[in-house]
Amino acid sequence: MTNLSYFKFSASWPKDSDDVAEISLRVGDRVISRIADTEKHTVRDFFRASTTGLAFWLADNWWRLRWETIRDSRFPSVDWRLRHELNSASGGALWPPVRIFSVGDRIAFAPSVGKNVVNGPQSYFEFKIGMVAADEYERELDGFFEAVLEHCAKIVDGEALNTLLKQITIERKEPELAAWRRLEACLGFDPDAAPDEVINALIKLEDVVGEEGVEEAAHAQPGVSAAKSLNLAIEASRESNIEVDLSLAESLKRDWKLPSHASPWEMAEAAARELRSIIGVSRGLLTHDVFADIFKARWDDLKSATATARTLPYGARIGDEKKSRLALQTLKPYDRRFELARQFGDAVWQKDIDFGIVSGSKSDRQKFQRAFAHNLLCPFEYLQRVIDVNDPTSEAMEKTARTFGVHPSVVRNQLVYKGYLPFENTNEEAEAA
């Protein structure tokens, strides 16, 4: 509905139609609404549906679509699917099989769970996951809502839609209310459905961990136990005897010359390359001592320290300008190196932030951490010199993993993200987007 070229959510009403329109959805070069009519032997880039029905679904789920991420792309809950899969919208239309969810400052458009296409006389083409800047997403939806209200104002549902959209506008403009709605959504609740005591407990913790820390904690452990889990992570960090200096993260100039739509993986690869340049080890294995020097610590201390977050849903760090204490979850040396690298990566992602968590969530912040650890410990430009990337056998990947001091999955993931091995599931594909 705008002149922006990357993301398009447009509707065209045929003559004499007061609601049903031809609707197209495009993310970059991905036409998500491309459909084949096998009976007519035609292909078109739009589907026909009730625009008020679509607008109601988008408005009803506005906060969760914008702020709620996904924990496991393979097995999302029924409640999550109802709020994020477009084919949950009412109206009986042949909706595109797409799910929409947040990863932070971007919105993901991914194939729905199960079949990527709808079988029958009309079938959608498969598409790969695409990402849209969140502010662009909001502007495009606002334009779509405006166009629907203008065209459908006289129909029965027009007034009700207008009332709903006015309420959402008020919520978005009021800072305290917007923050409340945002946190509800991050936790996986509809508006006014989250227990007040949970929201209030998390808001109180903002004094310790900041708004960003609370949001990441909500993504990592959504639901009613979020505040309890965050309190435990804070306690585990303070009790940890793993004390490190992350100030080297501030030395990165970040002049990475990346495209405007660069993914966390691309940013992390550039950041890891710059850090290796700073420490003077551009390729090959980071020995334990060199790795520990990044944290201004001794490897023996890092290796033997108690994992105070071992039984918690996620690890964490808490500190000040000079030192941070780390609550780690892992025990094996190669796992601990990877987790420590993620902790450093978080300091790169969130500059001048004294609290962070390391979790399995799908936010861009967590994806950056994982990608940073991959590329710091096992940079692809050197990996391809020690393994035949065109024939990476399991034995070869295990041997290469030992060379770099990482788990074999790190080697495999590098080969997957560089296109030498296929994605096994949508989780892997989303991780690289």
Which regions have little confidence, pLDDT < 50, spanning 5+ residues? Answer: none
Overall 3D form: globular
Number of strands: 14
Q: Tell me the distance between the termini.
A: 25 Å
| Overall average pLDDT | 91
Binned, the helix content reads: 40-55%
The assigned structural class equals alpha+beta
Relative strand content: 5-15%
Largest sheet: 4 strands, antiparallel
Count of separate DSSP helical elements: 17
Number of discrete domains:
2
What is the rounded Rg?
23 Å
Description:
It is globular and about 75 Å long. It has two domains: 7-173, no CATH class; 247-297 and 332-432, no CATH class. α1 (51-60) packs across α4 (134-152), α6 (175-187) crosses α7 and α7 (196-220) packs across α8. A hairpin with a 4-residue loop joins β12 and β13. It has 17 helices and 14 strands. It is α+β, with helices and mostly antiparallel strands. Strands 1, 2, 3 and 6 form a four-stranded antiparallel sheet that branches. A four-stranded antiparallel sheet has the order 11-13-12-14, sandwiched between helices. Strands 5-4-9 form a three-stranded antiparallel sheet, with no helix packed on it.
Q: What are the salient characteristics of this protein?
A:
433 residues; alpha+beta; 4-stranded antiparallel beta sheet; 14 strands
Write a compact overview of the structure shown.
This protein is an alpha+beta fold and 433 residues long. 48% of the residues lie in helices and 14% in strands.
